[in-house]
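Entry under discussion copied across for reference:
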Amino acid sequence: MEWSFKLHGGIAAGLSTVLLLLAALTWLPGTLPLAGLKWPMVAIVVLLFPIFIAALVRMFLSGADRHSMWLAFRCLPGRIQGFLGALVISGVVLMLFSTVGAGNWQAPEAKDGRYFVFDTTPHARGTIEVSHSQYEAVLESDQRSILAIPGVLFAGAAYFVFAAGELRRADVRYRSP
């Protein structure tokens, strides 16, 4: 596999690992120090779109179908397969638990020492006041989702890049005399 595929896939897998670890840290007591900051989300978006779009372009340029991509992924070393599989599974589990934990509440907000969340319950939509502990639970659930979703997308990008790189390696080996 060419070094550019390894670098691209490694960066995507590394960012996925960092985001999923941060999402898992939301279960520790207290809130993450990143809760009130806007720049981490901007950094995630700025990194996610070019990396994910480039991974999709590499996948489409390989000209392979889903089955060929899966076979190429299966040709990767077992540690890489296991690592990417663990990233995807942990990301999906984090997303599922984040949606279960908060119920129909989202978008926590603190104003003048009072805590509000947006209730999405059918026939009762609107902003409601909640206790501090409920506010923190919704805040942690939102953080978990905000970190887990891009983490899974980065893991998907790593899958696409590594599989496309393996297909490219096999194609070059097949074409050379």
